[in-house]
Fold each of these.
Amino acid sequence: MTQVSIDSLIQGAISGDCIVSFPTDTVPALAARPDRSSLIFAAKRRNQDKPLILMAASAEALWPYVQGSPAELKLWEQVAASFWPGALTLVLPASEKVPAAMNPIDPNTIGLRVPDFPLARKILEQTGPLATTSANLSGRPPLESMAQIEAQFPQVLTLQASELATAPTASSLPSTVAKWNGTDWEILRQGAVKLEC
């Protein structure tokens, strides 16, 4: 049985020994410590050309993982202030703090997000930023319930039903993914958020 309390799930994530799953404002996430990203790639049978997203409880927790000019950082902070917490993933130049395992093919960029979901942020406040992705086998539709996730990924720690009773309903739309190309935003995936480029 891998349904656990929120405290046990947090400890499992911090230990780095296991993958955890929790709801977000879009689809439920599979998450692991960034330096243990390989666990997620293996569990999902995911190609290494599909990078993971670094999710955190606040924008401030994510800025150490990116590098840019002072003008770029100011612009990125303005966009984050407008849309985070929310369903927007920003793909930005990665700093040396990002483990290469998160994006094996292109370790120079990293996707960042702060979910608009109190339970997810409560977990992330205690674990620190986690490598995340949707909960599904690669190429399959995202799983939308903890029961489905437990059936598909029996080794993943999920939350007990009692921990989820007060959680709001999430959207099944994925996040919008916007990549900084050096001068402007390139929309890689249109999702819940409309970002004017």
Amino acid sequence: MTFTFRSVDPLKDGELLHSWVTHPKASFWMMQDAKPEDVERAYREIAADEHHHAYLGLRDGEPVFLMEKYDPAHRELVGLYEPRPGDVGMHFLVAPTDTPVHGFTRAVITAVMAHLFEDAAVRRVVVEPDVGNKAVHALNEAVGFVPEREIQKPEKRALLSFCTRERFAAATGVAV
């Protein structure tokens, strides 16, 4: 599967993102009760933040997932681990669907990781999913993430995990 990426436009994409982040399958996104204006505001804040960026993943020109990348030295994980040069944080959310395609989410996370590693400065991807999100732990492991430890974030208990470009390439066969 081939995906392309484009920056989120908070005004244009706000309604779509609202439908995704408030869907029952997006409970770990922690925006279940958000109003459309809350989602638009959140993504306007990301768009204005030099350390946090949001992208839509497109398949055949249609948005099918959301990816956020952030600098963990400045956002999300400040004070919770010792960041290294070349670390980038990542979140992703696959659009809800009534007709799931087997292997789709794995293809998405593989594309997200390959996209992040296209930047030669990125040496390691950092994630901090909820400890209870077993499905994403399995996906993370499939693309080369290694859990380090549980951490307490203000909003959740998280599993801090890392993936180097070498581990990603070994796990997926994708050259980066």
Amino acid sequence: MIWYTVLVLAVGAERVAELVVARRNTRWSLARGAVERGQGHYPPMVALHTGLLLGCLFEVWLADRAFDPVLGWTMFAVAVASQGLRWWCVRTLGPRWNTRVLVVPGLPLVTGGPYRLLRHPNYVAVVAEGLALPLVHGAWLTAVLFTALNAALLTVRIRCENRALAPGFAAGARP
């Protein structure tokens, strides 16, 4: 369980790195007239992602979940791949990437990198990680709970992003 704890803490450190990047990118976006949308769903999103990490640890510790090598190593590979996809998204969007919904008016949609394949590839990474990270060490309850709650949250988040990215919306042309 020690190595799993280290893995979850490493993912937590990665989240802190994301927040540092997001804070820098927020300043960049706001300096260029960005408009923020969806502020109401941001605190539940932070709580859900924090809960994922805590749930992984507590379920494994308290329920004494066993490590199944076939499932564990497969899910470890999926979790690592999801991190790679997430950082490919961050790199592709550059200063436009954020944990918040900030849109700089007048900038075209990004269509390179993973965005040439999917409209919201970062959420593929989030879904994959949310399922895989707990299952690395058999925390199936955390995987199921996070996946269900995340599906509801992503429904709101993706709808918000799609509206914010619609032509004219970021500039306030639409209600």
